[in-house]
Amino acid sequence: MLRENKIPNMALISQFFKWYHSVNEAGQWPSKNTSIKDCLDNPQRSGGRSLKGNTTDGSFVRFDRVQKSYDGETLVVKDLNLEIAKGEFLTMLGPSGSGKTTCLMMLAGFETATHGDILLNGVSINNIPPHKRGIGMVFQNYALFPHMTVAENLSFPLEVRKIGKSEREEKVARALDMVEMGEFGGRRPSQLSGGQQQRIALARALVFEPELVLMDEPLGALDKQLREKMQFEITDLAHRLGITVVYVTHDQTEALTMSDQVAVFNDGRIQQLAAPDALYEAPENSFVAQFIGENNTMYGTVQNVSGEMAQVKLDGGEVIDCKRVNVNNAGERTCVSIRPERVELNIGRLPQGAHTLTAEVLEFIYMGDVFRTRLRVGDNDNFIVKTRNAVDQVRLKPGTQVKIGWMPEDCRALDA
Length: 416
What we know:
Blueprint: H1 10-20, H2 36-41, H3 43-46, E1 59-69, E2 75-85, E3 89-93, H4 100-108, E4 115-120, E5 123-124, E6 135-138, H5 150-159, H6 165-178, H7 194-206, E7 212-216, H8 224-241, E8 244-249, H9 252-258, E9 261-266, E10 269-274, H10 276-281, H11 286-291, E11 296-306, E12 309-314, E13 319-324, E14 333-338, E15 355-366, E16 370-377, E17 380-388, E18 401-406, E19 412-415
Parallel strand pairs: 3-8, 3-9, 6-7, 7-8, 13-19
Antiparallel strand pairs: 1-2, 1-4, 4-5, 9-10, 11-12, 11-14, 12-13, 14-19, 15-16, 15-18, 16-17
Helix pairs in contact: 5-6, 5-7, 6-7
C-alpha cells in the first residue's frame, strides 16, 4: 500500500497531463521518426506553429518587459528583461515571494504574462500551450505517477507524442542509463528513495530530448549530503547534454555551486545578474550582499569620494576607506559590506595599504575545517571572521582584544 507522502500533488498531476496531452487538431505531434529539432523546424510535423525564429541576438530564452499580476493591481513580476543563452545553466535565486517561481511558471506555460513577451528561439510563446513548447519540467515534489512503474513514467511523454514502441523503449533505457537507474525500470515510485525518485523525475524531463529544461526547487526534499551529490550530478548531466536549464531555488549555496549565471530576485525584480564568483565577490547593492553568503555590515556616512574609493565614518566613530559601489556624494548614508573570510586576524600577513581596527573577541566556534570568531567592532556585536583550521591559527578566547585588518578594495560601500 502506498504511503500518503509518496502520492504527488494532484494539481501538479493535472498540469502534467495537460502539458503532455497529445495534439490532434492540427496533425500528429510528433511522428515516430521525428526528432524534437524537426518539430521546431517544421510546424507541419509538429501539428502546430514553428518555434524557430530570429535568434541573431544570441539569446535562446528571452523575457521582454514581462509583468505579472494575479489581482490586476499588485505586480508580482515587474518589468522583467532577461536573456538566457543556449546551453546555459541559469538559476533564479531569491526569498519566498520574490517572483522567481512565477517567472518559471510563465516560461513553462502554466501562468500567463500580464504584459510583455516571452520568446523561445526568437518566437513569442505567450499563446502557445505548455504541451507544444517542447520544454522539460522537474517539479519540487517530482510528480511521478504512483500507479506506473519507473519505465512507464518515462514512457508516458513519449506515448502521447505517438512514438513507436521500439523507439520508446530505446529512449527510456537511454534516459535511465543517463541517471544511473537502468536496473530500476520495473519498480514503482513508492519503492524508491528520495534521491532515486529525483533521478527518475530528471530522466522523465529529458527522455523526449528537450532543448530547455525547467527545475522548480527539485532538491528541496533531500537531506544535505544527498542534495550536494545531486547538485553535481545535475550540473554535469546538463553540460554533457548541452541543454539549457532554468533552475529555481532559495538556497544560495546551491545557486553558486551549479550555475553559469545567477539572477537574484527580490520584490519582483532582478537585483543582479552575474556569474557566481562575480555575484559573491562584487555585489551591486546591499540586498545582494546580505542575501548571498555570510556578510559583515557596518553603517556610516560618506565623508568624501575619490575615484573608485570612498571614505566612510562609521556610526561607531571609526573612519575607513571602501570601494565605492552605489554611493556618489559626501553626506550619503551607506551600508559597508565585507566578507568574513576577507578579514585577517594576523595583520602581519596583510600587504601595505591595509586598513586595521581594534576588536574584542566575543565568541569562538570550532566548525571543523574553519574557525568562526565573533567580534565586537565599533558598535557591531556580530562581526564574524572565518579562518582556515591551519596549524598556525590561534583559538582566540572571549574578552581578548585583537587587531584585525582588510584591504580597502575588499570592503564595499553600498546603499543603506
